[in-house]
Structure formats: structure tokens, C-alpha cells
Predict the structure.
Amino acid sequence: MYPSPEHAHLAPGMPVEVRCRFDDGWVGGFVVAEIRPEAEPVAVTIRRAGAGDVLPESFRATEIRPVA
């Protein structure tokens, strides 16, 4: 379904941490909302786990990791 193996570990509804673009740390409290394989590069949208708000920017797989 996904064009590259780095996205195979992601699925909608999966809890994830997102790499902070300001300090390069990891921030939790998010889930995968949608994976858009047609985008170049593949775009992953996320939402806040509690509020359900979808963040306005898409992320790459390298900027997201599953919650351990």
C-alpha cells in the first residue's frame, strides 16, 4: 500500500511521537490521522490524542516514531 518501507510501520490511529522542529527533541501525545502515499514525499498527518485536532502541517516518516 505504501511506496516505501519506512512508512510500513505507521498506521492511522497509531500513537506516535513527533520530532520537534525547534529543538530536535521528541514530543508525545499524537496519533496518526492519515497517510497520503500519493504525496511526494509521502505525507503523514497527525492529530492530538486528547483533543482530536489535526495539525495543519504534514510530516515525513523520519519525523515520526511509534510510542515505545
Observations:
- The chain has a mean pLDDT of 85.
- The domain at 5-66 is CATH 2.30.30.10 (SH3 type barrels.).
- The radius of gyration is 11 Å.
